[in-house]
Amino acid sequence: SRSRAGAPLAGPPVCPARTRVVLAPAMAAAGLASQGLRAAKSSTGLRAIESDAQMESSFRRLLSAIEGERDDIRGSWAQLQDDRESTAAELEELRQQTEDWCGLEKSKIDAEWKRLDRLSEKMADIWPKRFEIVKINCSGNVYEVPRGTLCSIEGSYLAELFSEENTRSIRPDADGCYYLDINPHVFSLVIEYLLNRRLRVDAPLPIVPKAQQLNMELLAEAWNLKPFLKENRLNTVHGTSLHINGNTLQATHPGWQVISSMYAMPLANPYYFEAKIIKNPAAGTSGGLAIGVMGHVPQGPEIHTIRLQSSVMYNSNNGLISDVMDQADMDNVQKGVILTEGSTIGVRHDPATHSLQYFFNGRSIGTAAIKENCLDKMRDLFPVFALYVPDQVIQVEFRAAPPAMIKDGSN
């Protein structure tokens, strides 16, 4: 290049040799310093990179720990929810059980209150606020008994006899006594029982002497003295294979199996019992089911036949079988009646005429009388039931309501 005047420019100034000698050590020192600086910078960078790696690793571990804590919290929350639902279900079940228990206890309490109310009513009858003494002369024995006590057996003839309405129409004798011409021994037992009931409603029956048992049964039946009436049932002491459940009878083996009632029928009034056929696989065959009465409890070989001594039996699909009746009388009872499942056969004994009247499904099928020369053998009449085929089932009602119409052939 050139200057403004056109003269060529001079080059850089050249240092003299002395000067170069002086500057060389300085430049060498500066180069070493520069290298040291660069080395320091390099070392610092390495340390920074290592520190960043450590921080990143620590951060990752922290994140992992936080995530683990989150999972634990989620699991704990889910467990709490399950526990809450389970506890709520248990509480609901406990609440329902408590309500059911309270309802059951309330019904028991209500039933107990009703029982106490009925007991109070009975006690009011036995211990009325106003006592009216009734004097009774029973065959020379005089009793003075409150009217309420005499009338405490509901539905009895005694209660009807000494009711206020009835005694108004009957005048006592000069001594103010009502006269009764009945067995004084059994009447004294009735009075004893009635007086005991004033102290205890469920008072036990007095002991009836053996000599007076028949008289007591007759009076109890005639006057409907229910506490003195024996509740008949199937005889549980027998040698058959029959299965007894209450008054239900079931055959378990083939062949005739005969069983009677526990007690004989009462003889004070007409008596009616019946058997309902629950199941009869032999229906429509030549027989296999028989109902009737017998003058004693069947024993020994008698429990395996219906050809019984001192008996009257009606065999299904056949007719009457008896050794105490005339054939002409037995012919008055319809033959061939089949005791099918669901049907009912009933027997009515009339002690006044010594006759037996049979009913099928409430309809009379005939009447036959016991021969006079056989009455001694038939003083005690036991209802008797004979089953022949396994799985036959009958249900006996010993105090069934008699059919409204008892005329032969009526409905």
Can you describe this structure?
The protein is an alpha+beta fold and 411 residues long. The chain contains seven helices and 15 strands. Strands 4-5-15-7-11-12-13 form a seven-stranded antiparallel beta sheet, with no helix packed on it. A five-stranded antiparallel beta sheet has the order 6-14-8-9-10, with no helix packed on it. A hairpin with a 2-residue loop joins strand 4 and strand 5.
In short:
The protein is α+β, with helices and mostly antiparallel strands and 411 residues long. It has helices at residues 17-126, 147-150, 157-161, 164-168, 184-199, 213-223, 327-330, and strands spanning 133-138, 141-146, 177-180, 243-245, 248-250, 257-260, 271-279, 289-294, 311-315, 319-322, 344-350, 355-360, 363-369, 382-387, 393-397.
Number of strands: 15
Strand order across the largest sheet: 4-5-15-7-11-12-13
User: Can you tell me the residue ranges where pLDDT is under 50 for at least 5 consecutive residues?
Assistant: 1-10, 17-23, 407-411
Strand composition percent:
15-25%
General shape: elongated
Q: Please state the average pLDDT score.
A: 84
Radius of gyration: 56 Å
Keywords:
38% helix, single chain, disordered C terminus, seven-stranded antiparallel beta sheet, disordered N terminus, alpha+beta
Fold topology:
Layout: H1 17-126, E1 133-138, E2 141-146, H2 147-150, H3 157-161, H4 164-168, E3 177-180, H5 184-199, H6 213-223, E4 243-245, E5 248-250, E6 257-260, E7 271-279, E8 289-294, E9 311-315, E10 319-322, H7 327-330, E11 344-350, E12 355-360, E13 363-369, E14 382-387, E15 393-397
Parallel strand pairs: 1-3
Antiparallel strand pairs: 1-2, 4-5, 5-15, 6-14, 7-11, 7-15, 8-9, 8-14, 9-10, 11-12, 12-13
